[in-house]
Amino acid sequence: MIKARFSWCDASLNEFLRVLGDLLPKENKVATNTYYAKKLISLLTMGVKKIHACRNHYILYRGDDYKDLESYPNCEQRKTTRWKRIGASISIGKMQKKNKKQNT
Q: Hey, where are the domains in the chain?
């Protein structure tokens, strides 16, 4: 938690853990580096399950009624889909850069 809260890099956390381990009695159980600290913390974490949501915030695509839908019926008039179109946004960005170069 300290690492994320204060944006510590792995090297600084490793050094902190080394110093902390040196300060405590020899039989301490402090992790010796970032890898072991993450391994220890992972036992306490919960699993993550991604759930798609309607772009217009109408529903979550989960449960028997919605999990297989491509789009929510109330959103079909706007032609919204459950899936994000990656290729379209990339090509628009490239076109804008190309137009800027031509105009200068």
A: 2-42, 63-103
